[in-house]
Amino acid sequence: MGFFSDIGKKTTETTNKIARETKLKMKINENKGKISDIYEMIGKKVYEMHVREEKANMEDVLNDELTKLDELSKEIEEARIEILKLNQKKICSNCSTEIEKNAQFCPKCGQKQVSEEPTVKEEALKKLEDAEIEPDKKNEAEAVKEDLKEEIKEEAKKEENKNEN
């Protein structure tokens, strides 16, 4: 029975991943359509100003549309990154090629890839720094923070030395 249960779980996970990826792609396409509409609106406003021979500052007139473009572009990039994560991929820091998440070098340009994922210790340190600490535990928390910082530095040095060799 466990075999069929495992197959069911895998199928459900795959289906959920595909559904999430499809929703993200639909959102990207929707935002691209909105961006095209805004471009058209910007062009129309610029031409109307030209025809009326208005000498207004373009940035002041178009500020709302430019802000919308920035927001839509940011949403598209966030969705694209999430799709990459769903597919266990990342972007090469040098040539922007889509590569495997765990790749140490880009297969296209050969650039060494730096891990962007925080380590467990880095995540623990962040949580500890963000947490509200009871007054009587502050000294203990500070000591743990310092220990974590020191361990993170040591690991970074080891990684640096390993990469040099």
**Uncertain stretches:** none
Number of strands: 2
Q: Span from first to last CA?
A: 50 Å
* Topology pattern, helix = H, strand = E: HHEEHH
Task: Give the proportion of residues in helices.
Answer: over 70%
Number of helices: 4
Radius of gyration, Cα only, in angstroms? 24 Å
Task: Summarize the main sheet.
Answer: 2 strands, antiparallel
Structural class: mainly alpha
Strand share of the residues? under 5%
Q: What's the rounded overall pLDDT mean? A: 86
Write down the overall geometry: extended
Please render the helix and strand layout as text.
Elements: H1 2-51, H2 58-86, E1 89-91, E2 98-100, H3 120-130, H4 138-164
Antiparallel strand pairs: 1-2
Helix pairs in contact: 1-2, 3-4
Structure summary:
With 165 residues, the protein is mainly alpha-helical.
Structure overview:
The protein contains four helices and two strands. It is extended, with a radius of gyration of 24 Å. It has 165 residues and is mainly α. The protein has a two-stranded antiparallel ribbon. The model has no long low-confidence stretch (mean pLDDT 86). The termini are far apart.
Q: Can you tag this structure with a few keywords?
A:
single chain; 165 residues; mainly alpha; 2 strands
